[in-house]
C-alpha cells in the first residue's frame, strides 16, 4: 500500500519531501490540501509534474465515505471505507454549540463487551493516526459541501478501544489541532478502563475529556458484561481516573449504560455515588441500544428513577439524549447491514 500523507505532521512531510528533492514550501501547500481532503489532481497551486509524482507515491486521505444515512434530527451516520477495503462507522451530531463527530479508532475491537456490536467479530486491526484523522477530514469536507460549518468536537466513541491503540490515538491527537484546528478541549476519549494507559495519558500531558465506560458498580457485576473487568478492578480504574483529573484538571465523565436486572438497583445508585464522589466527575446515564445481546435496556420511568436516586445522593448526572434513532443508531449496526448486503 502507498504511504498515507495524513500520517505525517507538516514537519515530517517537509522531511519526507526533502528526501525527494521537493522544496520545503511545497510541504506547507500540500499539508493544507490534504487537511481539506483534496485529491492530488485538484491541488491547483502545484505543477502537474509534482501532482503526478505525489499521486504515484502516496495516498492523501486514508478513508472515504461510502454511505451516509441522514436522520430526521440532522444526525448523519457515515460508513467509511479504508484503503484496504475495511469498513468503519462515524456519526456526525448537530448540537446547539456546533457539530460533533464520533470517530472510530480500530476496525472491530477486542474488548468483547456483551452489549456492544462493534466487537462481535473481534479486532481486525488498529487504525493509524492518519486514518483516524481522515475520518475528521472527510466529515469536514462533507459538511463544507453542504453548509458553511466545521466540526468543533470529536468524541472517540466509535468502534475500537482508543487506549488499546495508544500510540496511534495520541499521534492523532497531536495532528488534530494543526490539521483541523480542533484543540484537546474539543476531544473526548472513551475507554473501557485500561488503567495503565489512563495514567500514561495523564503523564504524557494530554488533557482531553476522559470518559470511563463503567457500566457496573461491583467487579462481579462488571465481569458479566465486560471481559476487561477480569484484568482491571473498578477500584483501580477509579483511582486512575482520579489521577487523570489531578494531572489534567479535566472533569471526568463516567458512562453508565442502564441495563434492566443488572445495574440499576438502589444499591447500585449508592455504590455509583460513592465511587465517584471524591473527584469532579459527571455521570452520563446511557439508554442501552438494542443489539443482538440478551441484555435489555430500561424504559423512561426506570431511567428517571435511577437518575433521581443518584441526584438525591448528590451526584452530578444526566441521561444521555439519543440521536439518530431512525438511522441505525447503535454502534456497528450500519456496518453489519451494509456487509450483509
Ligand atoms: N471502547 C471505548 C469506546 C467505544 S464505545 C469504550 O469502551 O468506552 C462508546 C460507548 O458506547 C462506551 O461507553 C460503550 O460502553 C457504549 N456502548 C457500546 N454499545 C452500546 C449499546 N449497545 N448501548 C449503549 N451504549 C453502548
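-> sequence recovered:
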Amino acid at each position: 500500500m502507498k504511504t498515507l500523507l495524513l500520517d505525517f505532521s507538516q514537519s515530517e512531510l517537509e522531511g519526507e519531501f526533502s528526501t525527494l528533492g521537493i522544496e520545503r514550501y511545497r510541504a506547507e501547500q500540500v499539508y493544507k490540501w490534504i487537511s481539506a481532503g483534496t485529491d492530488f489532481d485538484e491541488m491547483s497551486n502545484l505543477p502537474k509534474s509534482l501532482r503526478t509524482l505525489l499521486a504515484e507515491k502516496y495516498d492523501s486521505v486514508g478513508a472515504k465515505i461510502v454511505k451516509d444515512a441522514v436522520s430526521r434530527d440532522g444526525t448523519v451516520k457515515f460508513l467509511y471505507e479504508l484503503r484496504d477495503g475495511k469498513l468503519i462507522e462515524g456519526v456526525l451530531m448537530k448540537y446547539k454549540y456546533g457539530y460533533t463527530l464520533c470517530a472510530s479508532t480500530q476496525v472491530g475491537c477486542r474488548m468483547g463487551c456483551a452489549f456492544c456490536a462493534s466487537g462481535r467479530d473481534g479486532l481486525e486491526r488498529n487504525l493509524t493516526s492518519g486514518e483516524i484523522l481522515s475520518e475528521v477530514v472527510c466529515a469536514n469536507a462533507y459538511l463544507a459541501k453542504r453548509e458553511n460549518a466545521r466540526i468543533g468536537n470529536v468524541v472517540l466513541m466509535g468502534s475500537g478501544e482508543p487506549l488499546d491503540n495508544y500510540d496511534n490515538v495520541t499521534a492523532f491527537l497531536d495532528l488534530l489541532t494543526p490539521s483541523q484546528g480542533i484543540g484537546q478541549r474539543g476531544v473526548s476519549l472513551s475507554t473501557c478502563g485500561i488503567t495503565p494507559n489512563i495514567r500514561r495519558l495523564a503523564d504524557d500531558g494530554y488533557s482531553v475529556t476522559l470518559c470511563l465506560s463503567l457500566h457496573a458498580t461491583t467487579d462481579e457485576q462488571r465481569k458479566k458484561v465486560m471481559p476487561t473487568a477480569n484484568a482491571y478492578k473498578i477500584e483501580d480504574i477509579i483511582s486512575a481516573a482520579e489521577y487523570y483529573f489531578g494531572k489534567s484538571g479535566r472533569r471526568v465523565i463516567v458512562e453508565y449504560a442502564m441495563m434492566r436486572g443488572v445495574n440499576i438497583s438502589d444499591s447500585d445508585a449508592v455504590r455509583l455515588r460513592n465511587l465517584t464522589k471524591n473527584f469532579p466527575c459527571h455521570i452520563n446515564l446511557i439508554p442501552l441500544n438494542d443489539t443482538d445481546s440478551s441484555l435489555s435496556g430500561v424504559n423512561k420511568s426506570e431511567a428517571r428513577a435511577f437518575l433521581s436516586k443518584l441526584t438525591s445522593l448528590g451526584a452530578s448526572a444526566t441521561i444521555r439524549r439519543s440521536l439518530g434513532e431512525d438511522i441505525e443508531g447503535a454502534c456497528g449496526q450500519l456496518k453489519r447491514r451494509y456487509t450483509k448486503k
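The chain has two domains: 3-59, 63-340.
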